[in-house]
Amino acid sequence: MSNKTVERNVNLKSSLMMTFENSADVLETNSMLTDDEATLYDRQIRLWGADAQLKLRQTRLLIINVNSLSIEVCKNLCLAGVAGITIMDNEKVKQSDVDHSLTLTISKENINEYKAECTCKMLQQLNPRVHMLADYQRTIEEIDINYLNSFDFVCIFNHFNYQQILYLNNLCHQTKNNDRHINFFCAATFGLYGYVFKDLGESYDYFSAISLGTETLIKGEGGHPSESQKNEQITKKNERKFITFEKALKTEWRPSKRREIYRSGLTTYTLLKALLAFFEKYQRVPELKTHDIDIPNLLSIIKHLDQTATTSKDIDSSMNDNELNEEMLTDILNDNNAVASIVGGAMSHDIVKALLRSMITPNPLSNTIITQLIHQPSSDSSTAILITTTISALATSSPARLCQYQS
């Protein structure tokens, strides 16, 4: 590593630590919410309480890559009132960014400026209380444990370099930040498809409420339950073990009666693995401008995955010739804002759940969420159905669990 690179890294680290140390000093001297904060966050404080809001105010996140999905997550968490967000992206704004995806934080006046810097400036206007920092000189290879110790969450978006994902995930998986695990999230959207992966560590403690009885009604006029018949609840401490991205991708699919949902999930799952394999082979992601070359190459990779998969029979039934056409594969090269909003909203919610450890929410979701928006034409209109498939990859012996939502 050159002296210039070392000096640049030292300056970046000093700037980052100075910003966060100042933030920590403020948090330490203000262990209670101010009147202004209570007014600003009134609605969410009513939902999860002042203690939970204080935990949010102490949370710092590293966001890697600027795109419609990461901006959606940043917007939600910025409005929620986290302590600080560092956005890491060394690319500059192009005309295609303005035209297609980054309308929330980037305009045509920002062309040739750094995406991270533009995004931080716009997000800062949403909530001036959040410390925003743009890191546009650092690369993923330059990230080390000392750098990650400044954060509670590390989130990487629309990144298909498999080795770099594993590198970051392994750093977080093995690292403790003041006896707290550094939580790792990895997410992407491609066309009408998307996924969210999370690793909350080998030992993740959370709390859940358990009912000790069933509330019954008294016969007669009024029908109100007596005090002795009301439900009683206790809080139980639970533990979950999360696995790495590498192990999650090796999870085997098991037969299920709900094959229609499985097929949708397997389509997305196979496309994800194909995009990772495409990058590993060509050292880039497929693009619209080179789709004449990229689509046949991507199709070849998918067919190869089909032939080598342990569940090739299920994949054959789901990813048939009618679905694997040029139009569908071309669609995954687009950055769809609607899909990013849905996936980003779900991911933001899960980050808050992971932080609060289910103080006011149900149990945390499993390692991987796979999402697909399917257009099913009817006689008079086209109905969009959102199918969300949850892969329960908490252990190799865990069966896959599915949930379906329609809109």
From TrEMBL:
The keyword Protein transport does not apply. This is SUMO-activating enzyme subunit 1. Residues 41-361 form the THIF-type NAD/FAD binding fold domain. Pfam families: ThiF. It comes from the Eukaryota. Keywords: Nucleus, Ubl conjugation pathway. It comes from Didymodactylos carnosus. Belongs to the ubiquitin-activating E1 family. GO terms for cellular component: cytoplasm; SUMO activating enzyme complex. Gene3D superfamilies: NAD(P)-binding Rossmann-like Domain. GO terms for biological process: protein sumoylation. Pathway: Protein modification; protein sumoylation. It is found in: Nucleus. Heterodimer of SAE1 and UBA2/SAE2. The heterodimer corresponds to the two domains that are encoded on a single polypeptide chain in ubiquitin-activating enzyme E1. Interacts with UBE2I. GO terms for molecular function: SUMO activating enzyme activity. Its main location: nucleus. InterPro entries: ThiF/MoeB/HesA, ThiF_NAD_FAD-bd, Ubiquitin-activating_enz, UBQ/SUMO-activ_enz_E1-like.
